[in-house]
């Protein structure tokens, strides 16, 4: 990670070793070892759980759910006893601050959901780990979901780790570094095209570009490709920003993503409570240099959009 000029630590001059000449120390000087990147610990946040332990907390939570939702909606839960036919498959980050069910008001049975680090989808590979592949296959082939939505988010630790990866730096984690390398192409693109942006802003761009990589990877699954060609499946990219309370979504019009510049970006924003939601769409390049906004949700690609 970079640092501004005022951030460099002031080093005290090394005390001279009387047993070694100055000339010798200069010749034998070696570069300081690269310090591994360790993400700072997150701030400790307390919740109003009245000091309950885990068993009490989950028991109380379930009782509340049963009293306020389960018992109040017998028609829904009776229907779910016979099976599920979710319309959506959702990829979301495992981050505890991101909760797609709550954020989008999804009902039980409405979305088949996978949550992992940075909501990433690896490319089709039968030799690799099959967790994600089996979820996609079941959702697409058996449940026949109509839409797969990959949702990135603000302040994503997985994306920060991805952007912090350096070839000469040892892995920080046993698994995380290798996992987020799914988005390595996006990282290189963001670094190449946004080198002047501060690290945090590069992360914001990468949070979207990593979603685009996952959308491309989804198209490498033969059953996804088949449904896309038939027009019975749609892929959507999205980014939820819990810092600004905003949500962006972009669509693949033809089922084929040739480049991220073919994206339509729709930004849904709300101010205050959800009941006073106002929605407008914003088309903008992912590097944020060009913006073009217009109102209305049911637009296809805007004629003056830089993507058109
Ligand atoms: Zn995340």
UniProtKB/TrEMBL annotation:
Keyword entries, A-Z: Lyase, Metal-binding, Zinc
Cofactor(s) this protein requires: Zn(2+)
Residue positions binding Zn(2+): 93, 95, 153, 156
Reactions catalysed, as given in the entry: hydrogencarbonate + H(+) = CO2 + H2O
Cofactor: binding details: Binds 1 zinc ion per subunit.
Signal peptide extent: none
MF term (GO), any: carbonate dehydratase activity
GO biological process: carbon utilization
Pfam name, any one: Pro_CA
Record-listed E.C. numbers: 4.2.1.1
Superkingdom field: Eukaryota
Gene3D superfamilies: Carbonic anhydrase
Family note: Belongs to the beta-class carbonic anhydrase family.
Role description: Reversible hydration of carbon dioxide.
Listed name of the protein: Carbonic anhydrase
Native species: Oryza barthii
Lineage summary: Eukaryota, Viridiplantae, Streptophyta, Embryophyta, Tracheophyta
């Amino acid at each position: 990670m970079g640092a501004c000029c005022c951030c460099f630590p002031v080093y005290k001059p090394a005390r001279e070793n009387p047993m070694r000449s100055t000339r010798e120390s200069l010749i034998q000087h070696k570069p300081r070892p690269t310090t591994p990147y360790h993400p700072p610990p997150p701030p400790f946040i307390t919740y109003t759980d009245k000091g309950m332990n885990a068993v009490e907390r989950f028991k109380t939570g379930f009782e509340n759910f049963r009293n306020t939702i389960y018992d109040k909606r017998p028609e829904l839960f009776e229907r779910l006893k016979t099976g599920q036919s979710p319309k959506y498959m959702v990829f979301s980050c495992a981050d505890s601050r991101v909760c797609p069910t709550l954020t989008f008001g999804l009902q039980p049975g409405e979305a088949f959901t996978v949550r992992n680090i940075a909501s990433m989808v690896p490319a089709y590979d039968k030799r690799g780990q099959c967790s994600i592949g089996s979820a996609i296959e079941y959702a697409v082939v058996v449940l026949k979901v109509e839409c797969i939505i990959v949702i990135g988010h603000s302040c994503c630790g997985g994306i920060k780790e991805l952007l912090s990866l350096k070839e000469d730096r040892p892995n920080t984690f046993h698994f995380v570094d290798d996992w987020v390398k799914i988005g390595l192409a996006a990282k290189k693109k963001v670094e190449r095209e946004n080198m002047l942006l501060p690290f945090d802003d590069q992360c914001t761009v990468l949070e979207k570009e990593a979603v685009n990589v996952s959308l491309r990877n989804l198209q490498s699954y033969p059953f996804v490709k088949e449904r896309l060609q038939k027009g019975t499946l749609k892929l959507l990219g999205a980014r939820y920003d819990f810092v600004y309370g905003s949500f962006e979504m972009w669509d693949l019009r033809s089922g084929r993503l040739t480049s991220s510049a073919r994206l339509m970006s729709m930004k849904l924003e709300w101010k205050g409570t959800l009941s006073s939601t106002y929605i407008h769409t914003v088309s903008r390049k992912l590097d944020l240099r060009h913006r073009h906004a217009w109102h209305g949700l049911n637009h296809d690609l805007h004629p003056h959009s830089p993507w058109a």
